[in-house]
Design goal:
The structure holds two protein chains of two kinds. Chain A is about 35% helix and about 25% strand. By secondary structure, chain A is an alpha/beta fold. In chain A, β5, α5 and β6 form a beta-alpha-beta unit. Chain A is globular and about 45 Å long. Chain A starts with a strand and ends with a helix. Chain B is mainly alpha-helical. Among the domains of chain B are: about 145-255, putative rabgap domain of human tbc1 domain family member 14 like domains (Helicase, Ruva Protein, domain 3, Orthogonal Bundle); about 260-380, Cyclin A, domain 1 (Orthogonal Bundle); about 380-420. Chain B has helices at about 25-35, 55-80, 90-95, 100-120, 120-125, 130-135, 145-150, 165-170, 175-180, 195-210, 220-230, 235-250, 250-255, 260-275, 280-285, 290-300, 310-320, 325-340, 345-355, 365-375, 380-420. Chain B is globular and about 95 Å long. At the A-B interface, β2, α7 and α8 of A face α9, α15, α16 and α19 of B.
């Protein structure tokens, strides 16, 4: 399937909040309760239809433990969107949001579109963070906000789609420029085809770059 | 010529042998101070090609050689029958039982390993090279528990006496550990279910370790290593082996909060990549495919989260004797074997390839992987030099950071002064 755009997305947040499960539910439409905890980074991608446009999301799922930030920080650059995930049954994961937010805005870009996801919505009985409180936080920090459940699938697709839609809107309004370096946005197939062809001719120059 | 199959092409004089390292101070004290850098100190290898072997040992080895050939033929035919067969056994020896010929050899292998364990000190001192070759062929499943303990010198660790006391204490890392317990080998029978013995002992060992080493506490990734140990041995023993691995095998440095050692490993690995696979290196760079993206978990979990356990355990056997070097070797072997495919792929294709294809390439032929790993060029001296280089780079970065901070503060103070003066 071809796509009009490619967006780089991050999934960030504390350990055990369900980042990998959200990604898996989004891509496979299934809850995966028997996967290893993430070491470093993992990937997924999916093409979605947003208002008639096909957008390929290239999603980077990161390890959540604090000390892994030294490793995962280098993957933030050029991300157009992010799911910032906490666990509604754990205040601790909610309290860490400010740090994650600072990292995302500093290391990805000031314009990164972030949707806050209060995951494990299905565990309402164990809730430690209210909807109201989190939505206020989202408002103050200019984030979109949804409560999600990777278990039931509720609002999972929506989270990714809403984030992508907002990025598309920003492109249409001219607020975001796909042509700008590091925007985390690429044009679809034409650009992809270019990427797939071996780049031996450019080998020399790429080596000199050293970045 | 015996055991030629797994001899590296360039026989280097004694690669680093972590377990040979000097007996450390008591674990609880040294765990706070950091391990001796013994893991990277090359142990002199006195073994010559003609080690003192008795005639029946020679005979056994000849049989093993034969077995090796049979297994290779066996795995080849299996591969042609069924492309991606997954091995179910835990070691090559125990998983291949088809012909009676093999089971005889299996018996011989047991006799040999029984002798090795009984005469451990002698083998360690006088038949080091041969022992190394045998380990590269895979330690028989039933001997792993004891051999891993012997290799890591974990048999009489004083910290073992504290273990039951540690379990009664509570650790600040408990919550973190809990979160990962059910997410460590979730598909493995031993760890399935909330009340399973596996989950309970895994939690115990991780907690106990976080108490004897408060600086490291608990780090994601390490539970896979402990989990593997627990599949082979009781929790006290697994705890002791893990303490040794942390102290003597660079693992503690890898899992410290700064994870600085991981940066070093990636730096060293990148150098080897650039040197030995320049074309692939250029391709990775042109796709912004960072080394840490695929290699971080290799170092942090010693391939336990990459390969199925029968294959990963073979790598782990070698790690127990030869240290982290095997991770560099296997990693580079993987890239060499897959270079032609990888250069055709873009960033996304490559990441999928690393996640889906590479893990199962050796399910039916782990020997092939090990063989290729020992054909990789690896120069311990060069690695040492790179370590110094990396330290210098990091130092410089830190100095710059300090300078920047200083200037920022100065700047702020000057601004304040201007403001007060303007008022």
């Amino acid at each position: 399937q071809s796509s009009d755009f490619l967006f780089k997305f991050l999934v960030i947040g504390n350990a055990g909040t369900g980042k990998s499960c959200l990604l898996h539910q989004f891509i496979e439409k299934k809850f995966k309760d028997d996967s290893n905890h993430t070491i470093g980074v993992e990937f997924g991608s999916k093409i979605i239809n947003v208002g008639g446009k096909y957008v390929k999301l290239q999603i980077w799922d990161t390890a959540g433990q604090e000390r892994f930030r030294s490793v995962t920080r280098s993957y933030y650059r050029g991300a157009a969107g992010a799911l910032l995930v906490y666990d509604i049954t754990s205040r601790e994961t909610y309290n860490a949001l400010t740090n994650w937010l600072t990292d995302a805005r500093m290391l990805a870009s000031q314009n990164i579109v972030i949707i806050l996801c209060g995951n494990k919505k299905d565990l309402d009985a164990d809730r430690e963070v209210t909807f109201l409180e989190a939505s206020r936080f989202a408002q103050e920090n200019e984030l979109m906000f949804l409560e999600t459940s990777a278990l039931t699938g509720e609002n999972v697709e929506e989270a990714f789609v809403q984030c992508a839609r907002k990025i598309l809107n920003k492109i249409e309004s001219g607020e975001l420029d796909p042509e700008r370096m590091g925007s985390g946005i690429q044009y679809g197939d034409a650009a992809l085809r270019q990427l797939r062809s071996p780049r031996r001719a450019q080998a020399q120059s790429a080596q000199e770059c050293g970045c | 010529v015996l055991l030629r199959v797994f001899l590296p092409r360039q026989v280097s004089p004694g690669p680093p042998s972590p377990a040979m390292a000097s007996p450390a101070a008591s674990p609880d004290s040294s765990s706070h101070e950091g391990p001796a850098s013994a893991a990277s100190a090359p142990a002199g290898s006195p073994a010559s090609d003609s080690e003192n072997l008795s005639p029946d040992e020679l005979e056994l080895l000849a049989k093993l050689e034969e077995q090796n050939r049979l297994l290779e033929a066996d795995s080849k035919s299996m591969r042609s029958m069924n492309g991606s067969r997954r091995n179910s056994g835990s070691s090559l020896v125990s998983s291949s039982s088809a012909s009676s010929n093999l089971s005889h050899l299996e018996e011989d292998t047991w006799i040999l390993w029984g002798r090795i364990v009984n005469e451990w000190d002698e083998w360690r001192k006088k038949k080091e090279k041969l022992l190394k070759e045998l380990i590269r062929k895979g330690i028989p499943h039933h001997f792993r528990a004891i051999v891993w303990q012997l290799l890591s010198s974990a048999t009489e660790l004083p910290v073992k006496q504290q273990y039951s006391e540690l379990l009664k204490m509570s650790s600040p890392c408990e919550k973190l550990i809990r979160r990962d317990i059910a997410r460590t080998y979730p598909e493995h029978e031993f760890f399935k279910g909330q009340d399973s013995l596996g989950q309970e002992v895994l939690f115990n060992v991780m907690k106990a370790y976080s108490l004897v080493d408060r600086e490291v506490g608990y780090c994601q990734g390490s539970a896979f290593i402990v989990g593997l140990l627990l599949m082979q041995m009781p929790e006290e023993e697994a705890f002791c082996v893990f303490v040794r691995l942390m102290q003597q095998y660079r693992l503690r440095e890898l899992f410290k909060p700064s994870m600085a050692e991981l940066g070093l490993c990636i730096y060293q690995f990148e150098f080897l990549l650039q040197e030995q696979l320049p074309e692939l290196n250029v391709h990775f760079r042109s796709q912004s495919f960072l080394t840490s993206m695929y290699a971080s978990s290799w170092f942090l979990t010693l391939f336990l989260t990459t390969f199925p356990l029968p294959v990963a355990t073979r790598v782990f056997d070698i790690f127990m004797y030869e240290g982290l070097e095997i991770v560099f070797r296997v990693g580079l072997a993987l890239l060499q074997l897959n270079q032609a495919e990888l250069v055709q792929l873009d960033m996304e294709g490559m990441s999928q390839y690393f996640q889906k294809v590479i893990p199962h390439q050796f399910d039916s032929c782990p020997d092939k992987l090990i063989l290729r790993a020992f054909q990789v060029k690896y120069n311990p001296k060069k690695m040492k030099r790179l370590e110094k280089e990396y330290a210098a780079i990091k130092n410089k970065e830190m100095e710059e950071q300090i300078e920047i901070k200083r200037l920022r503060t100065e700047n702020r103070l000057l601004k304040q002064r201007i403001e007060t003066l303007e008022k």
